[in-house]
Design a protein that fits this description.
There is one protein chain. The chain has about 575 residues and is α/β, with parallel strands linked by helices. The chain has a domain at about 345-465: Polyamine Oxidase, Chain A, domain 2, CATH 3.90.660. It has 16 helices and 26 strands. A seven-stranded mixed sheet has the order 11-10-22-23-24-19-25, sandwiched between helices. Strand 22 and strand 23 (about 390) form a beta hairpin. Helix 4 (about 155-170) packs across helix 5 (about 180-185) and helix 10 runs antiparallel to helix 11. The longest helix has 17 residues, at about 495-515. The termini are far apart. The relative contact order is 0.20.
Length: about 575
């Protein structure tokens, strides 16, 4: 009698869900069934095509300190020819801030590709982000350059330095909330100048209400001291920045990989391969019930847009859905305290206004004249506008724009589902974005050619509300031996794309090893190198902290981690 094939039901076709499906198909005989509630794969890492102009919802730099993730990406999209390894197996040498390393010549299975002639290409892009504050541009991360001092003024710069040194010598004894974290890491003055108003714009609550753990996860070891060292090394080094930059803090990375047609191209390609290998991806179905018996999940019930139900028996279940939805869907006794914490979890939502422009007013001054600014995105620190960030899609990939003579931007707003921003009509949101960019001197209102509004609910799991009691949920859900929480919303953790992928990979490895303990999944993104062995000890910093929103590799990521002043804000 033929043995029944085992099945894994995967809730969500984002990076974590599709990574889990692909890993199962290539490493086991377990058949994945992916259930996706929308009509597009990629989750927050999808790319929306609006009249030939592509929108990346949040800005996803493809970089990782994990060789495994870097190689995984390049198995699916070939490295841009100009930066690919030399032929004949010669290793590719990459360098960053004077640190060199060799990467396998065939990073991935596809070799190299010419983006002018081929479609499935991973570009190598220069990173540039700046802060727009006082109607001026500041380096991101903030550097102690003469330009920064001139723009801030000697008095403000001096006050920032004194404040920082004071906290180095006399740190706050308690570090329970994000404000205390920032002050210990950067000093009172710098926190109030660059972090406070922006972070509160991003999250919609006071920094005193956000758990310090958010800082520890997003900024990790980044500090003013590291930013100073980065600036000095960059000034002295003549070597180009490399791709595989494992020894570099996230906010200081200067080159990254990026799919020719945006992050969604990666996940569309992975989805294609999952289907080719026999996996199923069911679109536009929402999970309604999760059946469980004792300590195992047995089936998932989902409904289509017409309310028709489908039941999927499961030997294993991977969940990337928001934990609130997961707990409410469980068809088993859920302790009152777990329901209470689940219902109290909070999220920050996100919307983007895409604007097609004749041109931007703000320009880079070059030897060849005034040109389009080279920033990937700009953090809008100005307190008199609601916009939080501006992406210039031309600079992520020229192929994101249908007409390269035009400028295609995304104006990003952070909001709560149901609030006054979220519920504004599309026409009103378009007017707001145009008026705000014109007010702060970035565009002429008459330069707008076309526009679109996109909304992303539950983009950022929040580290306030009932989050301080999250372990009560984790303990309950981890007891289901065949249920694996992975990804950003699945774990209610502000993971970057690579972290989400690693949680999926780790979960698959646990299944193959027969391991039911989930500790190693939760450990992803709690250490600097994702539990890989470092060749050298980490440099110490003069600050006394654990560490704090960030960017997306992020994802979405509203903000990168910052001493650099912004990951700390979201990203």
């Amino acid at each position: 009698m033929k043995k029944r094939a085992r099945t894994a039901v995967i809730i969500g076709a984002g990076p974590a869900g599709l990574t889990a499906a692909y890993e199962l198909l290539t490493r086991s005989d377990i058949r994945p069934i992916v259930i996706e509630m929308s009509d597009q794969v990629g989750g927050i890492s999808r790319t929306v095509n609006y009249r030939g102009n592509r929108i990346d919802l949040g800005g996803h730099r493809f970089f990782s300190k994990s060789d495994r993730v870097m190689n995984w990406w390049l198995q699916h999209l070939s490295l841009q020819e100009a930066d690919a390894a030399a032929k004949g197996g010669t290793p590719l040498r990459v360098s960053y801030q004077g640190q060199s390393r060799e990467v396998a010549a065939a990073l991935g299975d596809n070799g190299s590709a010419d983006p002018d002639r081929q479609e499935r290409v991973m570009l190598v892009r220069n990173r540039k982000s700046r802060i727009y504050f006082l109607r001026k541009f500041f380096d991101y991360p903030i550097s102690l350059s003469t330009d920064t001092i001139r723009k801030l003024g000697l008095a403000r710069t001096g006050a920032i330095g004194v404040s920082y040194l004071r906290r180095v010598l006399f740190p706050l004894k308690e570090q329970r909330n994000l404000e205390q974290f920032f002050i210990n890491r950067f000093g009172d003055k710098l926190y109030r100048t660059f972090f406070k108003s922006y972070t509160e714009k991003v999250w919609g609550v006071a920094c005193t209400e956000i758990d310090a753990e958010w800082g520890a996860q997003r900024i990790k070891e980044l500090s003013i001291w590291k930013s100073v060292k980065h600036f000095v090394k960059k000034s002295l080094s003549r070597k180009p920045a490399g791709i595989a930059q494992r020894e570099t803090e996230t906010s200081l990375i200067e080159r990254f990989l990026y799919p020719k047609y945006g992050p969604g191209q990666m996940w569309e390609e992975v989805a294609r391969k999952v289907r080719e290998m026999g996996g199923s991806i069911v679109m536009e179905q929402s999970v309604r019930q999760i059946e469980a018996r004792e300590n195992r999940v047995t089936a998932v019930v989902a409904a289509d847009a017409q309310g028709n139900l489908s039941r999927y028996d499961a030997d294993f279940v991977f969940s990337t859905m928001p934990i609130q939805h997961l707990v409410r869907s469980l068809q088993t006794a859920v302790p009152a305290n777990v329901r209470e914490v689940s219902d109290g979890l909070m999220y920050r939502d996100f919307l983007t206004v895409g604007l097609l422009l004749e041109d931007l007013k703000i320009k880079d001054e070059t030897r060849q004249g005034r040109k389009l600014i080279s920033d990937n995105w700009i953090y809008i620190q100005e307190p008199d506008v609601l916009a939080g960030r501006l992406q210039i899609f031309n600079n992520w990939s020229p192929w994101m724009v249908s007409d390269p003579r035009k400028v295609w931007v995304g104006v990003e707003y952070f909001c709560n589902e149901g609030d006054s921003l979220w519920t504004r009509g599309d026409a009103e949101m378009k007017r707001l974005a145009v008026e705000e960019l014109a007010r702060i001197g970035m565009i002429q209102e008459t330069s707008v050619l076309d526009s679109v509004v996109l909304r992303m609910p539950k983009a950022y799991p929040a580290y306030f509300g009932a989050y301080s009691r999250f372990d009560e949920i984790r303990s309950f859900l981890d007891a289901f031996e065949n249920l694996f929480l992975i990804g950003r919303n699945g774990m209610h953790r502000y993971n970057n794309q690579d972290h989400s992928m690693l949680t999926a990979m780790t979960a698959v490895e646990n299944i193959l090893a027969g391991r039911t303990d989930k500790t190693n999944i939760w450990d992803v993104n709690t250490e600097m190198d994702y539990h890989e062995v470092r060749s050298e000890p980490a440099a110490s910093t003069p600050t006394a902290v654990s560490q704090a929103p960030g960017e997306s590799s992020a994802e979405l990521q509203p903000v990168d981690a910052s001493a650099s002043l912004t990951e700390a804000r979201k990203g």
